[in-house]
Amino acid sequence: MLRLYEYPPSGNCYKIRLLLTQLGIPFERIYVDIVQRESRTPEFLSKNPNGRVPLLELEPGKFLPESNAVLYYLSQETPFFPTDQFEQAQVMQWMFFEQYSHEPYIATSRYWISILGKAEEYKQVLEQKQPLGYAALGVMEEQLKNSPFFVGNCYTIADICLFAYTHVADEGGFDLTRFPAILAWINRVKEQPNYLSITE
């Protein structure tokens, strides 16, 4: 059985739980408290030298880190990854966008505010992240004005990837009421078969 090393509030960990659940693949969950630096212990670092979760153990001693790499691995030859070559590239495009233009602003803000509870301590840097976070949401809004999902009018790992932190962006101080197309998309994702909430 697959083993998922995770910190449940993490959107990156949630991505994997959501896809595994929607694929109907059983897995064991192993709690790693990143706030207590459990991902930095020698034991964990022997599994992932980068010291981060999520980490998927495919078989004893065989590990795959990085949430979007795990999404890619699990989605191959499933409806969650297109067969068309251009659409495959578009999925990757949005996943790179999530890591470079979205996650550094929206996810980190949520972590400091809602997980660490240190909004005042990080006030200045949080203010700096707001314009870039809203810029990323604006890019998403424009795409979703013309398409129900991000690629090929179908629900794919691109949607799972971006949904994880977007649907809880308010926990990082972002006002999603400015983005009606994103809000409609969030509802469509929640209506997908075998949907799993981030708190489950």
TrEMBL record:
Keyword Transferase: yes
Keyword NADP: no
Name used for this protein in its record: Glutathione S-transferase
Family in the record: Belongs to the GST superfamily.
Top-level taxonomy: Bacteria, Bacillati, Cyanobacteriota, Cyanophyceae, Oscillatoriophycideae
Superkingdom of origin organism: Bacteria
Cross-referenced InterPro entries: Glutathione-S-Trfase_C-like, Glutathione-S-Trfase_C_sf, Glutathione_S-Trfase, Glutathione_S-Trfase_N, GST_C, Thioredoxin-like_sf
Organism: Limnoraphis robusta CS-951
Keywords in alphabetical order: Transferase
Record-linked PANTHER family: GLUTATHIONE S-TRANSFERASE-RELATED, HYPOTHETICAL GLUTATHIONE S-TRANSFERASE LIKE PROTEIN
GO molecular function: transferase activity
Domain GST C-terminal span(s) in chain numbering: 84-200
Limits of the GST N-terminal domain: 1-82
CDD domains the UniProt entry points to: GST_N_4
Gene3D superfamilies: 1.20.1050.10, Glutaredoxin
